[in-house]
Amino acid sequence: MSDRDLHRLKDLPIPEASAERKAEALQSAMAAFDANEKVFSNKTKGSDNPSRLKAVSTTSLWEWIMQKRYYVGPVAASLLIAPLAVHLTVQQMDENDDRPILEGLFSSPTPAEETEALVELTPANKPEKSSPVALSDRSLGRTDRTEAPNIVGFAPSVSEAEPSDLQGIVAAPPAPSTDSHIVRQGGGSIDGVTAQAPRSNEVSSLYGRVAPAPAAERKAKRERAIALNSKALSSARHQPRPQDALPAQSAGDRFSQLDRNGFLAVDTDPVSTFSIDVDTASYSYVRKLLNRGELPSADAVRTEEMVNYFTYDYPLAENLEQPFKPSVTVYPTPWNQNTQLMHVAIRAFDVPEDARPPVNLVFLVDVSGSMQAPDKLPLLKASLRLLLSKLDAEDTISLVTYAGSAGTALEPTSAAERSKILSALDNLAAGGSTAGAAGIRAAYDLAHQSKKDGSINRVILATDGDFNVGVSSDDELKKLISEKRNEGVFLSVLGFGTGNYNDSLMQVLAQNGNGTAAYIDTLGEARKVMVEQAGSALVPVAKDVKIQVEFNPATVSEYRLIGYETRALNRADFNNDKVDAGDVNAGHRVTALYEFTPAGTESAYNDALRYKKETTDTGSSAEPSAQSNELAFLKLRYKLPDSDKSKLITLPILKSDSKQTLDAVSNEVAFATGVAAFAEKLSGSEYSADYSYDEIKSLAKRGLSGGNGSLRNEFVGLVDLAELLSAQK
Amino acid sequence: MNCIDQESVLIERAKSGDRSAFAALLETQYSRIFRCAYKWLGNREDAEDVAQDVSVKLAKKIADFRGDSALSSWIYRVTLNAVRDFERQRAGRNLGLGKYFQFMQVVGEEQVQSDDAELDDLWFSVRKLPPKQRDAVLLVYGEECTHQTAAGIMNCSEKTVSWHLHAARKKLRHILKEEGHV
């Protein structure tokens, strides 16, 4: 595939968009724009006349065009009165007619009568003014639209009220559209008519005269137009497309766009730095979608969160002073025979259950209307009940709700008072819109109120998506959360439901609050997140944990970090203790995987540099012989929870320690690799595209005997599902 | 007043809630949006759907447009996201009645064929690329953006754009071979 071939891509013949669809698009955009208006209203104060700055003639033309549909309302209204007018006129004229008035009004005239009436109407025995009205309205009343004149024809009847407007319409040549269309779709075809209007200065001057109409009247017209507009939209758009019968419910969920890590050449980028991540939200979200028969979008799949979802049986650290013990395995990549994987495993020190300090939890619960769905508020209530069973009298729980307004549903209460907490829970009901800012402040206040010496203080935000921030911006919210974090109150986020799930915001919130983001899709997941981990998992054992790996160009030619795209750090951030990073609570397991190409492999993604620098004389501390055996050097920095100074753990990764076959690695590592391969496949990664679902399954099955076996079994089921779903795609 | 100034005046006014300015702006941009969507999707009706979605999104988001990238880049970005959403929704929809609608789509689609069969094959293959690679190829070759502009639109580094292009070329060779065209 040469450059020249690809350059031909620009020569594609492109058809024109149909004028009708274009008008529809512009129109719906304007409706959306108008819906913004309340946002704008402050800004436009003092510049009430929108045409004041007018300098561009196309602007005025468009304004004129877009304003046109406001008059559809009056036109339509006059049409409704039309039959009445006709019949009244007929009645008045024909004094000898002895039919009762009511009959004349409500029985629809036969075609013969109609014609008769018209004949009688048109000549001279009518007052001049009403004649065109009666005529045009009459003709519109007919159902046979091929005979009816188009809207331009009868526009003059409305003219008395709006002279300037009328001239504009008359100036436009007759449109090909049919009038029945106009009545149904409101503005759509009006645009069609006016699109043919001449581009003249006259038009803009016309608009100039329309503009100063009383503000209230204009507003009313605008509202009518919008109503009409949106109705027309909902009926017109998409109707003929059968696929729409099946809505994609996850379409409203928002994820940050992920730029997947590619292979980096060790020559140019020898150092990889990232913050650890113990979130699990991505896995449960993916599981939920798969179980519903939908493949997740690539951006929803975060490989590290998928892998870290499971508890692995990694070697345990001995004490709290050095709460980690990193262990590294190097083995052949299952999906690529030319590369190898480097599996970095960390297991945090496990705090015994009875040594846990008291917890002070403030639940900030979104009770906006959207939380009503069974997989949201009711699931949250059930999860809280489960959690309650694990807490004791030392612990306190408070509930703050936010919707239209924020309120405290439960003052800090000892977990011993079960019934009080449960009844407060039961009284939570969904309704109203979302206003999170007041809620989060109230939650932090409560957390401070019941803070005790040595207690673990945490605000747990439970929401299905939007966290509308009265605090003027996301940045300000982040600042608030970081401040509170420094005061010792951490923030965690529990996500619920689909359709409106704002994953990226949740991530930002949890990352700034030293917390975790978990996504609760089932009660089983609630149990995992809140109960299994509620005890010791709430105890932080280290904060700001960063990993830096320096690869040895003598042994490794290129590498890529699998996942952790949202956690990348700059090289210099590693030694900078001011840079925030991920936190690890008791018992957490963290896995990171690198895929790398050993030096000297021909099929590297990056070609070797022809003018490679000689690097042997850079004063490295390692002996040359040791260097040639080292693949990389792992550095891990962390702070103890109450310290601001970081500690360093280092570990050289030796070539001679690498496993020669995949079978030689532990079952735990094999399972983690299987999960990573699955995540890579779901995210459409080009590297593991040829690796089959079956191979993933057989890799994962090796780990079935390990910890949380039921979840691992479930994983194998998910691989099956994904295989079926992607076969359909 | 030159063209660019005029555009930035319109943007400023649209941001402050001037609907006529926004209408004028959208009128000038609609065909760019449609053409872009068409190139990505290869089907007029789909492109019109996406163009409508994009128009509505622009209306909602114009107030947040900060002007730290060019308007065209911003519009590309919104359009590319809309294309992806559209494909995702379609994939979701297709699962239910799966094959039937896929069939219907193929039959019902208005595929504009150019006279150049080779070019058609190339386009067909490009549209089958993974999203990031496709975006990179179409921005750089289809829209003739510089790597720098494409990087801005795709919100990644220039290096990553080059990487995507490299991977895409490799993949295209593979696809074309598989389809038996080369």
Sequence of strands across the biggest β-sheet of chain A: 7-6-5-8-9-10
Helical content of chain B, roughly? Answer: over 70%
Q: What is the CA-atom radius of gyration of chain B, in angstroms?
A: 18 Å
| N/C terminus separation of chain A | 27 Å
What structural class should be given to the helix and strand makeup of chain A? alpha+beta
**Structural class designation of chain B:** mainly alpha
Search tags:
heterodimer; A: 729 residues; alpha+beta; six-stranded mixed sheet; five-stranded antiparallel sheet; 27 helices; globular; B: 182 residues; mainly alpha; 8 helices; 79% helix; 0% strand
How would you summarize this macromolecular structure in one to three sentences?
The complex is a heterodimer of chains A (729) and B (182). Chain A has 729 residues and is of the alpha+beta class.
Account of the 3D structure:
The complex is a heterodimer of chains A (729) and B (182). In chain A, helix 17 links the parallel strand 5 and strand 6. With 729 residues, chain A is an alpha+beta fold. Helix content of chain A is 40%, strand content 16%. By secondary structure, chain B is mainly α. Helix content of chain B is 79%, strand content 0%. Chain B has 8 helices and no strands. In chain B, helix 2 packs antiparallel against helix 3 and helix 3 packs antiparallel against helix 4. The longest helix of chain B is centred in the middle third of the chain and has 38 residues. Chain B is globular and about 55 Å long. At the A-B interface, helix 1, helix 2, helix 3 and helix 4 of A face helix 1, helix 2, helix 3, helix 4 and helix 5 of B.
